[in-house]
Amino acid sequence: MHQTFDAVLGINLLHANQQGADHNRAHFDKWGITCFNMMSSPGAGKTALLERTLAALTNELKIAVIEGDMTTDLDAERLRKYNVPVIAINTGRSCHLDSKMVAGGIHQLEHEYNPSDFDLVLVENVGNLVCPAEFEVGEHAKVALLSITEGEDKPLKYPIMFQEADCLLITKTDLAPYLDVDISRIEANVRQINPDVEIIRVSTKADEGLEVWFNWVRTQVLKPQQNSLSTAAILNVVHIH
Ligand SMILES: Nc1nc2c(ncn2[C@@H]2O[C@H](COP(=O)(O)OP(=O)(O)OP(=O)(O)O)[C@@H](O)[C@H]2O)c(=O)[nH]1
Ligand SMILES: [Mg+2]
Ligand SMILES: [Zn+2]
Ligand SMILES: [Zn+2]
Questions:
Q1: CATH number of the domain where residue 81 is located
Q2: Is 72 domain-assigned?
Q3: Residue 70: pLDDT band with limits 50, 70, 90
């Protein structure tokens, strides 16, 4: 995990990040956009899930993607096939997206499109089970993915991600017959940390649970935005275009 206080600079990094996250959320709220932060360890299936989500929902929702990777735009290229705006952010040496990086993506969306046309922005975070959960980017919901190949104990060993999640997708369930894994044990471990989290078992390969996931997405998009009265004030105070 990163140190969140830089003693030399005297900056509380998480506090500064939070201000940027409030700024981003104010943009989303002004435009009527719901934003998800999609997080998991490398390879749990974030991009595969986004591919299926875009294929299923672009006819009913206007979606844009902000794609975070340390290097390359391989995932961004996979998602551009679905004819949605995909803004690629390379984080370089950073193993998570922070709110300032995502602000760059949001401002790009604002300049290139009419942002009020969009319903949903999906942020794919860098593959990492630890710090993305601590660095809010302005999302309305945190979606965590855990594949069944990672082990039943992961929610207990990396609790912050599972504590913070609004929705947990247990992925690659098609592999269960080949593994010594008890999926209900994973669920019990998650519930121990976060009793109220929505848990959905999915497989993009075997088409399992995807309709349940799409319905969860729909309910979140339809939820009234938390539209704070201070939206305009936040945008004025911290504008980092
Ligand atoms: N068997 C199986 N494999 C899957 C499933 N979903 C994804 N995969 C495979 O898992 C690998 C990683 O999937 P990605 O979607 O690239 O994972 P990711 O979380 O986006 O990876 P990073 O962006 O690198 O962190 C690929 O080889 C996928 O084909 C699934 O439901 N079942
Ligand atoms: Mg990916
Ligand atoms: Zn990090
Ligand atoms: Zn702004």
A1: 3.40.50.300
A2: yes
A3: very high
